[in-house]
Automatic annotation (TrEMBL):
<dbReference type="InterPro" id="IPR009057">
    <property type="entry name" value="Homeodomain-like_sf"/>
</dbReference>
<keyword id="KW-0805">Transcription regulation</keyword>
<dbReference type="Pfam" id="PF14526">
    <property type="entry name" value="Cass2"/>
</dbReference>
<dbReference type="InterPro" id="IPR018062">
    <property type="entry name" value="HTH_AraC-typ_CS"/>
</dbReference>
<keyword id="KW-0238">DNA-binding</keyword>
<dbReference type="InterPro" id="IPR011256">
    <property type="entry name" value="Reg_factor_effector_dom_sf"/>
</dbReference>
<dbReference type="Pfam" id="PF12833">
    <property type="entry name" value="HTH_18"/>
</dbReference>
<dbReference type="InterPro" id="IPR050959">
    <property type="entry name" value="MarA-like"/>
</dbReference>
<dbReference type="InterPro" id="IPR020449">
    <property type="entry name" value="Tscrpt_reg_AraC-type_HTH"/>
</dbReference>
<dbReference type="InterPro" id="IPR010499">
    <property type="entry name" value="AraC_E-bd"/>
</dbReference>
<dbReference type="InterPro" id="IPR018060">
    <property type="entry name" value="HTH_AraC"/>
</dbReference>
<feature type="domain" description="HTH araC/xylS-type">
    <location>
        <begin position="8"/>
        <end position="106"/>
    </location>
</feature>
<protein>
    <submittedName>
        <fullName>AraC family transcriptional regulator</fullName>
    </submittedName>
</protein>
<dbReference type="InterPro" id="IPR029441">
    <property type="entry name" value="Cass2"/>
</dbReference>
<keyword id="KW-0804">Transcription</keyword>
Length: 287
């Protein structure tokens, strides 16, 4: 099964189980993917977490039932996974801007989130600058935190971690440890578990002894796809991630090897339009 077909199969599975308490593990299995990589790919391509997609779609279907049937509001709430009418009403109003009772009376406008269909852009209109690098294993030294993959907690927690370490001057201390081939601070996603967690590191390639309070990560030898990112943070990085998954992977002989992924932030002003950073993705040949 191809990459696009696998992702669409997972989306179809979600749509078929909108009334069931499905887990991210069950969904990821439909795409033959780990939980982490499925969530990451899904969020990159859709700008929406898996949990948010399920919530939006269920509330869209609930609104349709309120408008088209006489079914009790409490029954619709239970059908789409809400334990109490109050929780349902709060979520419904946050999405639609009206209460379930108002929706039943056709008061106000409803906000529909339609079923996803994955379409991959293979035109390659915007050129991508990349290189393939073979690199032996190396060590990274820095700070590590564990994040839950549930409800997009990792997506909210990682930017907060950067903010905290930047404000405390810790990121500058880490940068001073850099004595390896990869120049700059590293944002590393590693040790993702199907149990629902991942480790995120702010680190630097370094052979130095580990200072007190810091940790060491051994990054395995790999063939890497190294992609240039041009432009100011935070917008430039997500744009290239999306281009990699929607254009580069489907039209190349490689797939993600599933080990640590790196974002490389060299010295300079990351908010400048002239800033150049990198994304390093471990590669393996497609089966």
């Amino acid at each position: 099964m191809g990459w696009v077909e696998s992702l669409q199969r997972a989306i179809d599975y979600m749509e078929e189980h909108m009334e069931d308490p499905v887990t991210i593990d069950q969904i990821a299995k439909q795409a033959n993917s780990s939980v982490f990589h499925f969530q990451r790919t899904f969020s990159i391509l859709t700008d929406c977490s898996v949990a948010e997609y399920l919530r939006r779609r269920r509330l869209t279907l609930a609104a349709q039932e309120l408008s088209a049937t006489d079914r009790k509001i409490i029954d619709i709430a239970y059908k789409y996974g809400y334990d109490t009418p109050e929780a349902f009403a709060k979520a419904f109003r946050r999405q639609h801007g009206v209460t379930p009772s108002e929706a039943r009376k056709n008061l106000g406008k409803l906000q529909a989130f339609n079923r996803l269909v994955i379409q991959v852009n293979l035109k390659g209109v915007d050129p991508m600058k990349y290189r393939i690098v073979e690199k032996e294993s190396f060590q990274a030294v820095g700070m590590k935190r564990e994040f839950s993959l549930s409800n997009g907690e990792n997506m909210a927690g990682i930017p907060q971690m950067w903010q905290e370490l930047n404000q405390a001057g810790t990121s500058s201390t880490i940068a001073q440890l850099n004595d390896g081939d990869i120049k700059g601070l590293l944002g590393i996603c590693a040790d993702y578990q199907d149990g629902g967690t991942m480790d995120y590191w702010i680190a630097a390639e370094s052979t130095a002894s580990v200072p007190e309070g810091f940790s060491r990560l051994e990054v395995p030898a790999s063939k890497w796809g190294v992609f240039e990112v041009h432009g100011a943070m935070p917008d430039a990085m997500p744009k290239v991630w999306k281009q990699i998954f929607s254009e580069w992977f489907p039209s190349n002989q490689y797939e993600n090897a599933g080990t640590a992924e790196l974002e490389v932030y060299p010295e300079g002003d990351p908010y400048s339009e002239d800033y150049v950073s990198e994304i390093w993705i471990p590669l393996k040949s497609k089966r």
